[in-house]
Amino acid sequence: MTPVKYKIIDEIAVIEVSNPPVNAISADVRIGLLDALEVLSLKDDVAAIVITAPERTFLAGADIKEFGKKIDAPSLGQICDKIEKMNKITIASLHGTPLGGGLEVAMSAHYRIAAPKTKVGLPEVLLGILPGAGGTQRLPRLCGVSMALDMMITGKHVPIEEAFENGIIDEIAIDDKTIENGISYAKKIISQGLGRRPTSEITNKIQNKKDIEESISSAKATALKKYKNLFSPHAIIKCVEEGLNLDFDNAIKNERRLFNDCIESPQRQGLIHSFFAERAINKIPELQNGKSLEPKKIGVIGGGTMGTGISMAAMNAGFEVVMIEQNQDAIDKALKKITSTYDRSVRLGRMNSQQQNEIMNLFSGKTDISQLKDRDLVIEAVFENMDVKKEVFIKLNQICNQNCILASNTSYLDINEIAKVVDNPLRVIGLHFFSPANIMKLLEIVVADETSDDTVCTAFNLAKKMKKIPVRSGVCDGFIGNRILSKYLVATYHMVEDGASPFHIDRVLREFGCAMGVFQVIDLAGGDIGWATRKRKAPFRHKDDRYVEIADRVCERGWFGQKTSKGYYLYGEDVAFLTPNPEIEVICSDERKRVGIMPREFSDQEILDRYIAAMVFEGTKILQEKIALRPSDIDVVYTNGYGFPRWRGGPMKYADMIGLDKILDNINKFAKEDPRFWSPPLLLEELVKNNQNFDSLN
């Protein structure tokens, strides 16, 4: 069945595109569009052509699966060129989210009308490419260079009101009847005697050379600061800058050349992997078999950093929240933190006072845990101690109704152990939020042995409403993210004790593209968190395991990072960003002397090799043990929760890109020094032996 059909109503031809589920502009769609346009161009009784997609959304973009492949079909650029050069008036009637190629098609039409709540954008930069069907040339002509560059470099979605005010859209309809909207607008254009209006011929917003130069200079400065490691933002700026000095046809050719350069970039491979990895996270067995409950009332136990963040995430999603704390002072402190966060959002224009009041009305703080008896879901966010958490769940088991889902926000602890104190363990699950929980997108959903499919479905549904990226994890110490973190932290401390500077290690990781270095992260999270974990694990540590005490020496001095204004770095109003704590190197030197290690130099490459090898090592073991269902899930965890550069795809994808044989060679080399820590995982050896990679397991 062809995804493109057309009909003629009076003198208006209506082209309808239907290519579910997202209306991607696949080869079949492009062939169908070109055929329809060629037929309609020959019909003398047609005065105008309306392009619509009457189902879920107007054209949503190119089919990503076709990128880099040779396909026997017209390119999207050819389609856009055909639409713009038609001998009839062309109109795009938009609704939903016309993004990327969808907006490029719309901009190639002579006029555009959109339904209310439509959002438009050119987010190709998020995939490591640029708009390659005329978008870099048509958008500046419609809205000006400054807004066009901002849209393309950030990839943001623009509300239809803003798009209308800036000339991207010509009219906003009163409803979402996209076919009727297009026809009525076409009749209006014809009745007013308006003719064809090719976007390529609109020049009033690209004539002020001074403004254009300032906009391009500003964009370049932003790109150098925010996107210095990325290729496509700079290519987009170059495309716009060079295109404005060429005639339109040559500007389009130049755009295509730069688009192909982006396609060849390794960043494109990593970013597209990240895109598909985030789409795959919902492919889990529980979602096939279970049924989601619809919680409306949520309880949060604990008013600390995590408890307040989780409460705000729930309130932002429209849930009524009761927070439980030990005393009124703790509640007042939590309420002050929540209120100040929303006050800041109002000051920054992210919401208005009415919206703030509506959200705040969803919150109440109580000291009596029995107030949770009417909750549909309770999230425990107390201190990371098994006995404390068990005590909370024993109380919840007595207070809450038997259908209430009981979740723990533990970062490391055994959910199976917690579930044992509950009469109905089917409703117990781990919900590992990341701090700050009202901002961070990642949510590890930890499925215990007896967690029901319905409970898992409800957790994924909750994540969706909170606009989180959920990743399923099995039960182990640290789950996916923190288990890998524990491994590379140990490897990092080994390097430090052997002679590497913590500040050198952090610099290497930032230059690699990580949001922060290891020791920056420790300072941000609080060194006391890791200290407590090390103490918990101490009785189970094997006597032959190498244990570095440098971190303990730091914590013994009360240097927990940002919260104490001193950690591996120094903090304060008059302290420059990333100022090293000079006493750290003294501690390192003293510890090396104590254990009899002669320090040696580490190159940037060796630091990076050991960091990546440790991540891939533990990630492979997590796959062996089926804690994670697929390598791409590990990548999603690390690009969304741990600052691993998204454009490198995640640690498992990056390992594929540099070669698993090289990773295994490094692990074998490191194992000669410490075979207990670096003994190669069996799965990694099998993949290399069979000439396979992690992607083959996805």
Q: What features would you describe in this structure?
A:
The chain is α/β, with parallel strands linked by helices. It folds into 3 domains: 4-267, 2-enoyl-CoA Hydratase, Chain A, domain 1, CATH 3.90.226.10; 287-473, NAD(P)-binding Rossmann-like Domain (Rossmann fold), CATH 3.40.50; 481-626 and 629-697, N-(1-d-carboxylethyl)-l-norvaline Dehydrogenase, domain 2 (Orthogonal Bundle), CATH 1.10.1040.50. 49% of the residues lie in helices and 11% in strands. It contains 30 helices and 20 strands. An 8-stranded mixed β-sheet has the order 13-12-11-14-15-16-17-18, with helices on both faces. Strands 1-2-4-6-7-10 form a 6-stranded mixed β-sheet, sandwiched between helices. It has a two-stranded parallel ribbon with strand order 3-5. Helix 5 (145-154) runs antiparallel to helix 9 (232-243). The two termini are 31 Å apart. The model has no long low-confidence stretch (mean pLDDT 95).
How would you briefly describe this protein structure?
By secondary structure, the chain is α/β, with parallel strands linked by helices.
